[in-house]
Each structure stands twice: as structure tokens, then as C-alpha cells.
């Protein structure tokens, strides 16, 4: 698409939006569609060749507009992230597919993604504990949950813990400003002995103040094996601050 076509298509899109608003009463108030409807309407793999603008807009009307805006867009994100997962040759457990065990959606910011991961870990941890000990209340479990991150981590990690109403402990770093396995292990064991429930660790790959990388090859196995009476493992998020990737 060159500059001239970009200008022309941009004007057409303004007309499309204006026409939608002007004739909105002709569209259904609520979509008569079931969750997951979109997956069968588009390819299961990312296209290898580009499509024309007309073909894209035809698909928008055929696939997206029949559904309520946000659910349709969320389903599209899920399918497209499956495309990305397949392109990266990720394990099947990372793919939503038709079973819905993996997958994901696009978050607006890295800070939002950190918060979502913490809330998901919190929710899953509480559910797991309630299965094994139904006498405990959610508020009692929540008061004992503890998360961890580097003392070099971006402030958004600490804010996520504040919003999620869980304790966040900052793990001291080595002379290279990186978290090592023994540092995290010591804090986890102390907290377990105190009756707390370790459930989440946010590692950093390129910290904001020092561009340091935590030792993931050490920390990953620790998080996987850091079991206590209620949990199978610490949930591990790897966040990049200096390069903006998560």
C-alpha cells in the first residue's frame, strides 16, 4: 500500500465508520452467535500471501461485525495469537486451539500484562487450595499469598501486587543486579516456615535501572519445584523492562 492508496483507504474508513453510525439501527442489538463462532470462519494458520483491502473489509463484515465488538475482537486475538504460537513452534499447551487450554489475548501495555498474570496466578492458587481444604475462606488464603520480584524490577510489578491485594517481597540481587536461585529460595523457605503461601515470581529480562537479566535457567526449575502443602509450583512471569517485551 503506497501513500496514495493509504490516503484513499483512510477516507474510505472514515466513510465506513460514519455509515455504521448513521445506520446502526439496522444492525442487530445483540449477536445471535455462540462463543467460539469465529474460529471456523478464518484460517487456522497465518496467511502466507497478503490480501487486498476489499477482501479484508469483506471479512470484517462477514466475520467481525456479526458479533458484538469486544467479544469478536477478543476471539480474533485468540486465533491470531495461535497463529503466532504455531509460527514460533510453541508446545501445544500454549495454543488455545479448539480445546481452550492455552492461548491468550493482546494486552494494552506491559504493565497491564503483568497485572493480568498476577491476577490469574492468584485466582488459580486460591482455587487449588480450596479443592484440598474447603474449610478455608478465600479471604484467609488471600491474606497469606506472597509474590516475589527483583529489587531492580519496574514499579509496575509492585503496583500489580497492590491492585491484586497480595504481599510483594523484593528479592535482593547479586553484584550484577540479577536475582540468583539461592536468593529466591531463601525467601520462599522463610515465608513457608512463617505460614505464608508463595505463589508468584516476576523475573526480569533487562531491568529498567541496570538492564540486568535474572538467572532464568536457575530460577525456572526452582519455581517449578518450590512446592508447599497447598501448591505445586510458583507461577513464573518473565518481564522485560529495558526493551519493553514480556
From TrEMBL:
The keyword Lyase applies. InterPro entries: Aromatic_deC (IPR010977), PyrdxlP-dep_de-COase (IPR002129), PyrdxlP-dep_Trfase (IPR015424), PyrdxlP-dep_Trfase_major (IPR015421). One of its GO terms (molecular function) is aromatic-L-amino-acid decarboxylase activity. Transmembrane segments: none annotated. GO terms for biological process: amino acid metabolic process; brain development; carboxylic acid metabolic process; catecholamine biosynthetic process; serotonin biosynthetic process. The keyword Metal-binding does not apply. Signal peptide: none annotated. It is an enzyme of class 4 (lyase). It comes from the Eukaryota. Its cofactor is pyridoxal 5'-phosphate. Gene3D superfamilies: Type I PLP-dependent aspartate aminotransferase-like (Major domain) (3.40.640.10). Its EC number is 4.1.1.28. Pathway: Catecholamine biosynthesis; dopamine biosynthesis; dopamine from L-tyrosine: step 2/2. SUPFAM superfamilies: PLP-dependent transferases. One of its GO terms (cellular component) is cytoplasm. Keywords: Catecholamine biosynthesis, Decarboxylase, Lyase, Pyridoxal phosphate. Homodimer. Belongs to the group II decarboxylase family. This is Aromatic-L-amino-acid decarboxylase. It comes from Xiphophorus couchianus (Monterrey platyfish). The lineage of its organism: Eukaryota, Metazoa, Chordata, Craniata, Vertebrata.
Amino acid at each position: 500500500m503506497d501513500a496514495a492508496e493509504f490516503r484513499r483507504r483512510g477516507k474510505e474508513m472514515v466513510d465506513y465508520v460514519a455509515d455504521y453510525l448513521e445506520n446502526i439501527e439496522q444492525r442487530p442489538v445483540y449477536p445471535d452467535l455462540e462463543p467460539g463462532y469465529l474460529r471456523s470462519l478464518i484460517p487456522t494458520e497465518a496467511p502466507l500471501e497478503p490480501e487486498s483491502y476489499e477482501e479484508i473489509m469483506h471479512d470484517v463484515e462477514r466475520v467481525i461485525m456479526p458479533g458484538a465488538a469486544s467479544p469478536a475482537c477478543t476471539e480474533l486475538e485468540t486465533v491470531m495469537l495461535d497463529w503466532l504460537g504455531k509460527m514460533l513452534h510453541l508446545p501445544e499447551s500454549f495454543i488455545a486451539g479448539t480445546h481452550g487450554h492455552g492461548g491468550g489475548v493482546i494486552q494494552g501495555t506491559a504493565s497491564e500484562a503483568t497485572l493480568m498474570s498476577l491476577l490469574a496466578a492468584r485466582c488459580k492458587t486460591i482455587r487449588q487450595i480450596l479443592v484440598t481444604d474447603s474449610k478455608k475462606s478465600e479471604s484467609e488464603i488471600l491474606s497469606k499469598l506472597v509474590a516475589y520480584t527483583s529489587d531492580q524490577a519496574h514499579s509496575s510489578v509492585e503496583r500489580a501486587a497492590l491492585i491484586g491485594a497480595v504481599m510483594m517481597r523484593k528479592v535482593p540481587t547479586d553484584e550484577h543486579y540479577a536475582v540468583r536461585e539461592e536468593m529466591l529460595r531463601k525467601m520462599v523457605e522463610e515465608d513457608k516456615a512463617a505460614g505464608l503461601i508463595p505463589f508468584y515470581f516476576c523475573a526480569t529480562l533487562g531491568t529498567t535501572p541496570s538492564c540486568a537479566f535474572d538467572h532464568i535457567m536457575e530460577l525456572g526449575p526452582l519455581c517449578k519445584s518450590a512446592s508447599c502443602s497447598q501448591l505445586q509450583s510458583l507461577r513464573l512471569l518473565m518481564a522485560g523492562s529495558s526493551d519493553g517485551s514480556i
